[in-house]
């Protein structure tokens, strides 16, 4: 009989080579990085649109993901407008960065990305010592 953990692991392995899944994640990383760069620059959507010489609606569509075919030119335009290097907008984030930002995990949930196994083991050992 297959356990939930085995099914979950198999699905994770399958997704590592799924182009659509990886593209979606990369696009979400880029739009989140744009939002963070805008916040650091204290820039609103209308300010970004003006700096890029596009309509505010185009910026809204970009940030909401309405056009998934993001051009390199657009990334460079945004980078110039917010004052960062283009590669900064394309940086991949890890699960723990998302969790830290939005605190999305349910109470009591431990992610392998949030707490490395060695830390979890130490916590369990310390808990066992305290209980004894």
Write the SSE topology.
Blueprint: H1 4-15, H2 19-40, H3 45-52, H4 56-64, H5 72-82, H6 86-89, H7 95-102, H8 117-131
Helix pairs in contact: 3-4
Tell me what the structure shows:
The chain is an all-alpha fold and about 130 residues long. The chain is about 65% helix and about 0% strand. The chain is elongated, with a radius of gyration of 20 Å. Mean pLDDT is about 80; it is low at about 115.
Cα(first) to Cα(last) distance is 37 Å
Tally of extended strands?
0
What is the average of the pLDDT values? Answer: 78
CATH class of the domain at 4-93: Mainly Alpha
Question: From the alpha-carbon coordinates, what is the Rg to the nearest angstrom?
Answer: 20 Å
- The CATH topology label of the domain at 4-93 is 434 Repressor (Amino-terminal Domain)
Annotated CATH architecture of the domain at 4-93: Orthogonal Bundle
Q: Can you write the helix and strand succession as a string?
A: HHHHHHHH
Corresponding CATH superfamily of the domain at 4-93: lambda repressor-like DNA-binding domains
Total helices: the number is: 8
Q: Which stretches are low in confidence, meaning pLDDT under 50 for 5 or more residues running?
A: 113-117
What fraction strand? under 5%
Describe the largest sheet: none
Quick one: overall form? elongated
Helix content: 55-70%
Helix-strand makeup class: mainly alpha
Task: Name the features.
132 residues, mainly alpha, 434 Repressor (Amino-terminal Domain), 8 helices
Summarize, please.
Helices cover 67% and strands 0% of the residues. By secondary structure, it is mainly alpha-helical.
């Amino acid at each position: 009989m297959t356990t939930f953990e085995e099914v979950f692991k198999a699905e994770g392995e399958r997704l590592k080579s799924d182009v659509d899944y990886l593209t979606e994640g990369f696009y979400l990383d880029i739009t989140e990085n744009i939002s963070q760069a805008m916040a650091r620059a204290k820039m609103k959507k209308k300010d970004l649109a003006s700096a890029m010489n596009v309509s505010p609606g185009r910026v809204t569509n970009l940030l909401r993901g309405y056009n998934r075919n993001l051009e390199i030119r657009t990334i460079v335009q945004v980078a110039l407008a917010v004052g960062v290097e283009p590669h900064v907008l394309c940086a991949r984030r890890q699960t723990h960065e998302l969790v830290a930002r939005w605190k999305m995990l349910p109470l009591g949930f431990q992610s392998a990305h949030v707490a490395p196994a060695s830390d979890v083991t130490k916590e369990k050992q310390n808990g066992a010592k305290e209980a004894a």
